[in-house]
């Protein structure tokens, strides 16, 4: 009961009366050998090396996804709130979950010592409003940690987009041929391929060029600065490919397992973490 009252104190309303307080879900099947699992696990470990969390620290994770990184954070603190716009991908239990958009957090001002997000900022429509909300709920001496993709990651995504789509098209055409559903033969294939020809935009951006520029280091630094944050550390994380080549099933995983160590040799990375504090004179 004491824990419920402590968690409820950070909200602008009684979350337990609203019916979505501390939710426990049965653990779903999670493939620990999936490269996506390994990437997120190694990523949070690298972040935790530079982030000191006490047991009494109040931590907010924005965009918890499957809850994988949440489990690592929960080992460090007794006060962890995990938020996301949906919990369809959740695969871990015993987490305090709050369904909300990053642009509209239902928490009181100065509620958390640490606000953490991993690969979230590129997926929100209004990044400035999201950072404004992060600043509002963060205490004056709190720390913001955001992991975001790099422009090099975007280059890899563009290079692998066409091979993946081409192989997906070949699989689709074979399936249609077996089912005898191809309309007008060759013309039907050309029509379908033309719809897939446009390169995919990963996040909430108008085009790939805009996204590539937004992922540059100086653009990320500028975004944090103009929204009232002082970045005191930028840490390179992992080097991995954003898409599995040749139309294979899973997304956002590595081409070769060895790529996870090449960042030490090449100096390149697919993801980097920004550690920031509030600018003292920011409103």
Architecture overview:
- The chain has about 280 residues and is an alpha/beta fold.
- The protein has a single domain, classed as 3-Layer(aba) Sandwich (Rossmann fold).
- The chain is about 35% helix and about 20% strand.
- It has an 8-stranded mixed beta sheet, sandwiched between helices.
- α4 links the parallel β2 and β3.
- α3 packs parallel to α4, α6 runs antiparallel to α7 and α6 packs antiparallel against α8.
- The longest helix has 29 residues.
- It is globular, with a radius of gyration of 21 Å.
Question: What order do the helices and strands come in, and which of them pair?
Answer:
Blueprint: H1 2-8, H2 15-18, E1 22-23, H3 35-48, E2 58-62, H4 68-74, E3 79-84, E4 95-99, E5 112-118, H5 127-137, E6 138-149, H6 151-179, H7 186-196, H8 208-214, H9 217-226, E7 229-236, H10 263-266, E8 271-278
Parallel strand pairs: 2-3, 2-5, 3-4, 5-6
Antiparallel strand pairs: 1-4, 6-8, 7-8
Helix pairs in contact: 3-4, 6-7, 6-8
């Amino acid at each position: 009961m004491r824990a419920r009252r402590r968690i409820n104190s950070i909200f602008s309303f009684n979350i337990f009366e609203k019916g979505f307080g501390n939710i426990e879900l049965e653990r779903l099947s999670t493939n620990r050998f999936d490269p996506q699992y390994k990437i997120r696990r190694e990523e949070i470990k690298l972040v935790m090396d530079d982030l000191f969390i006490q047991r009494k620290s109040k931590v907010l994770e924005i965009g918890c996804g499957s809850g994988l990184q949440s489990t690592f954070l929960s080992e460090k603190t007794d006060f962890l709130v995990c938020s996301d716009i949906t919990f369809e991908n959740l695969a871990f239990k015993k987490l305090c979950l709050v369904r909300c958009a990053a642009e509209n957090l239902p928490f009181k001002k100065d509620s958390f010592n640490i606000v953490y997000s991993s690969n979230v900022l590129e997926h929100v429509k209004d990044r400035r409003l999201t950072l404004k909300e992060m600043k509002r709920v963060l205490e004056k001496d709190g720390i913001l940690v955001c992991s975001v993709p790099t422009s090099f990651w975007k280059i890899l995504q563009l290079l692998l987009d066409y091979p993946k789509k081409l192989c997906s098209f070949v699989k689709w055409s074979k399936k249609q041929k077996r089912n005898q559903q191809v309309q007008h033969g060759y013309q039907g294939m050309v029509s379908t391929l033309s719809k897939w020809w446009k390169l995919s935009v990963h996040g909430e951006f108008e085009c790939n060029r805009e996204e590539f520029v937004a992922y540059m280091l100086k653009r990320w630094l500028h975004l944090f600065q103009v929204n009232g944050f002082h970045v005191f550390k930028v840490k390179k994380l992992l080097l991995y490919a954003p898409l599995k080549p040749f139309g294979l099933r899973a997304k956002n995983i590595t081409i070769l397992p060895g790529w996870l160590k090449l960042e030490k040799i090449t100096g390149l990375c697919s993801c980097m973490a920004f550690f920031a504090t509030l600018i003292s004179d920011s409103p």
